[in-house]
Structures are given as structure tokens and as C-alpha cells.
Write a structure and sequence with these properties.
Shape: globular
Strand content: over 45%
Helix content: under 10%
Largest sheet: 17 strands, parallel
Structural class: mainly beta
Number of strands: 32
Radius of gyration: 19 Å
Distance between the termini: 51 Å
Number of helices: 0
Length: 306
């Protein structure tokens, strides 16, 4: 069961707490806006279908669980925006991709308190001729990702640029095999390579950033033309553990991206790795660290440019 509109149309759902359990919201190439208010207030619907929430009115919680999905993928990708106090995804999908010709829209998460995603997917990719949109996650409190994948890719056969992933929060905890990726897909036996530039991953966090058994990577794939993106992290502290990796690499015809870390402290534990490499025809990017107070590396660590 679910809600569906014709291609290019919009769906707007605003109320108190919003709770989707196994529901499907579909607006091919359109716009879906989900928002919750905990008290009375006037929400304005703008000409493009976006919402403007009243200032000074506390948001309510928005929850998607048990396979709930918001899908605006189409010949031309649409946009998804979720606004609330605590926003929670569990076993759920947000998908904004484009398949023919035209740019995909954005996926935007705005949480007043907490954004959490468990066993979920955020996908904004191009399979045709056009750019992806941005994936932007902002929280006045914490962002937690567990077994969650965030894609912003130029897929096989696609031509365009990935516009990247942006996370702004008080703290960020990424665990249990989660991935944040921007890439230009390489060729294999089933499909040709994509062409374009992979987007940047920009993480701006006031306090702690932790990655455990999880990864951030930007890649130009085998046979692809373009460049990998940069990984930029600004945080009070950064900890990578249990095989966690930050990687920007090129296997195609173009340069790899750089990795730029600005932090008060950095820990690399238990085979964690920061790597900028090339196995293709371009140059690897640089790894740059700016330490505001102290730097600590424990157990096995690797920071390299290849």
C-alpha cells in the first residue's frame, strides 16, 4: 500500500508526528516533502512545492520503518526533503535518481535534534545524461548511521557529475558496515563505464566523529573518464577503528581526489586506514591533516598516497 502521483507531480505530508511503517510514497520526477510540527503553526507551500516552516515552532518526529520507501526516481529525478525533530529511518529507502536525460534533485534531511538511520539506503544517482543532486543531512544534535549506505554516484553508462554528500551535525557516529560513497562507476562484463566527476564528501561536525568498521570513499572506476572527489572532514575529534577507511582513488582516466582532515585529535585503531591512491592514468590526491591540539595513532595504522 502507498501513495502515488503522476510523473512530475508533488506529494506533501505535514502534521504532527509522521510514522510510516512499510509504506511506499512514489512521485516519479516530482517532489516529496515530509514534515512534522509538535504544535499549531502555519506551514507555507512554495511555488516549487517546497515547504517553509514557521520559526519558533518545535518540530515533531518523523519515522520510517519496516521497508518504508520514498521514491522520486524517474526519467528526470525528483527531490526529497524530510524535516522534523527526531528523524529515524529503519530498514527504509530514500531514492532520487535520474534514468534518461536531466538532473536528479536533492535529498535533504533537516533534524532539530537527532537523525538516525539503521539498515537503510539514501540513493541519489544518475544512470542517464545529467547530474545527480546533493545529499544533505543536517542535525542540531547527533547523526548516527548503522549498516546504512549513502550513494551519490554516476552509474555505468551515465554521463554527468555527482554533486556530493554533505553532513553537518553536533556529532557523527558511523558503524556496522555503513558506507558513504561518491563514485563514477567503472566498466565490467555487464556494463560500460560512466563518465563524469565524483562528488565531494564534506563532513562538518562540532564534536566527535567516529567510524567503526565503516567507510567513506570517492572513486573513479575502471575505464571511466573524469575525476574522483575530495573527502573533507572538519571535527572536534576523529576516530577510525576496526578496519574503517577513508579512501579517494582513481582506476580510470582522471585524477583521484584529496583527503583533508581538520581536527583536534585523530585516532586510527585496529587496521583503520586513510588512503589516496591511483591505479589508472591520473594522479592521486593529497592527504592533508590540520591538528588543532594533539595527534594519536594506536595499533595498526596506515596513511598513504600511492
Amino acid at each position: 500500500m502507498g501513495l502515488e502521483v503522476l510523473p512530475g507531480a508533488n506529494i506533501t505530508l505535514v502534521g504532527g508526528e509522521l510514522d510510516f511503517q512499510s509504506g511506499l510514497v512514489t512521485a516519479p520526477g516530482g517532489r516529496v516533502e515530509l514534515g512534522g510540527l509538535s504544535q499549531a503553526g502555519e506551514v507555507t507551500i512554495n511555488e516549487n512545492g517546497s515547504l517553509s516552516f514557521p520559526e519558533g515552532v518545535e518540530r515533531a518526529d518523523v519515522t520510517l520503518t519496516n521497508g518504508a520507501e520514498v521514491d522520486v526516481a524517474g526519467d528526470k529525478g525528483g527531490s526529497i526533503k524530510v524535516s522534523g525533530n527526531n528523524i529515524s529511518l529503519s530498514g527504509s529507502v530514500l531514492n532520487s535518481s535520474t534514468f534518461v536525460e536531466g538532473d536528479a534533485g536533492n535529498i535533504t534531511i533537516e533534524a532539530s535534534s537527532l537523525f538516525s538511520a539503521d539498515s537503510s539506503t539514501l540513493n541519489n544517482s544518475t544512470f542517464g545524461a545529467g547530474n545527480t543532486g546533493e545529499i544533505r543531512i543536517s542535525s542540531d544534535g547527533a547523526v548516527t548511521l548503522s549498516n546504512t549506505i549513502i550513494f551519490n554516484n554516476v552509474e555505468g553508462g551515465g554521463t554527468g557529475n555527482s554533486l556530493g554528500v554533505f553532513i553537518n551535525a553536533q556529532s557523527l557516529d558511523v558503524t556496522n558496515g555503513s558506507q558513504i560513497q561518491t563514485l563514477v562507476r567503472g566498466s565490467d562484463q555487464a556494463e560500460v563505464a560512466g563518465n563524469g566527476n565524483a562528488g565531494n564528501v564534506f563532513i562538518d561536525v562540532d564534536e566527535d566523529v567516529t567510524f567503526s568498521a565503516s567507510s567513506v570513499f570517492s572513486q573513479l572506476g575502471l575505464g571511466a573518464q573524469g575525476s574522483a572527489g575530495d573527502i573533507i572532514i572538519e571535527a572536534g575529534s576523529l576516530s577510525l577503528s576496526d578496519g574503517a577507511t577513508l579512501t579517494s582513488s582513481t582506476f580510470g582516466q582522471g585524477d583521484g581526489g584529496g583527503i583533508n582532515i581538520t581536527t583536534g585529535s585523530l585516532e586510527l585503531l585496529n587496521a583503520a586506514r586513510v588512503n589516496a591512491s591511483t591505479s589508472g592514468e591520473g594522479n592521486a590526491g593529497k592527504i592533508t591533516e590540520h591538528f588543532l591540539s594533539w595527534y594519536q595513532v594506536q595499533k595498526i595504522q596506515e596513511m598513504q598516497v600511492m
